[in-house]
Fold this protein.
Amino acid sequence: MRIKGKILTVLLISCSAGAGSFYVTRSLEEESNLQDQSMQQWLDLSEQQNQAVQKTTPNFNATVTGLSMNYQNERQKLVRLMSAPDSTDQQISDQVENVIQANGSLFRCVVGYVLSVRRYLTPRQHRRLMQLCNDVISGRVNRQFFRRQNISPRAPGRGPGLGPGPGPGMERRPGFDSPPAAAENISAGQGTGRGQRAGRGQRRGQDQGMGLGQRRGQGQGRGAGLGRGQIPENNIPGINLPAEQRNRIRSRIRGNFARRIGFETQQLEKINQLDPEFDQQSFLMSRQLQKYYQQLAMLLENPDTPDEDVWQHLEKLFQLRNQLDRLIARYVLLIRPHLTPQQLNTLLSLSNW
C-alpha cells in the first residue's frame, strides 16, 4: 500500500482558507485526473518511514476518499437547491449545515493525518509537509499548482522541492471563498517574507494567490519563487482600520459585487436595504478568520506544538468559520428572491471573490 499523492489535493480542498465554501461549484471529479504521485516519493520517505506511516494510518486513503466524495456531493446538492425556484429557505439552510459538517469532517481527517505522520519525519521532511499545509491554508497554492507537478519531483526545475534560490516574489495575502463583502484584494500594511519554493530551476517566479493586500517575499526556493509574507499580529487588515477607511473598503467591495452580478441600480438599492449590517459583520469576521488561519499555520509549522493545542485552535477556527458560513447563507437567502435566474447562476458560479 502506498500513501497516495491524492493527499496533496485533499489538503487543498479541505484546508482552503475561507468561508462560504458552499458557493464553490467546481466538481472535485476533475481532481481524479491528477497524477497519482505517492507521498512516499514526494517527501522522499525511507522504506522504514513509509512502513511506520502506513501502520499508523492504515485506513487513511479509504477514509479521506469517502469524506471527499461526501463533501462534493453535499456541495452539489446545495447548488441544486439554491438554483431550484421551488426550494424553501429551510431546505437550503439544512443543506448548508450538511456542507459545513462534511467540510469539517474532511478538514479534521487531514489535520489528524498530518499530526500522526509528522512524528516520523526528519526536520527537512517536516518542513516540506508543513510548508505545503501553510501554503494551502494561506491560499498560496491552487489546483493549477498540483496539475503542474506532472513529472518526477526530482526532475530539474519542476516538482515540489525545497532549497535556497533567488527571487523576490510577489504574494497576495489569503482571501476567502465568500461574498465580496467578506473578501477583497486590498493592500494594507507592510510585511517581509521568505519562501520555500518549488522545483530546482534557478529562475524567478510570481505567486498570484487570492487575498488581502500584497506582500513582498524573498523566494528561498529552487524554481518559481513564491514569496511568503508575514503580517504583523497587530496589522490584520480590517481589524484596526479607522471606521472611515473600513467604509471606503466596504463600498469598493459592494461595487465589485454589483458589477460581477450585474445588478440594476434600483435592484441594488433594494438589496442594500435588506441587511445593511451584513457588509460590516462579514468584513470583520473574515479578517478575524484570516488571523485564525495564520495562527493554525504557525502551529502546524512548529514540530514541537502539542497535538492538543492544534485541535483546540482548530475547534475555535471552525466555530468562527461556521458562523460566517451561516451569516453568508442567510444573506444569500435574503437576496435570492430579488435576483434574476441569470444573476443567481452568476452568483453560484463564483468560486473565488
Remarks:
- The radius of gyration is 21 Å.
- The beta strands are 168-172, 194-195, 214-219.
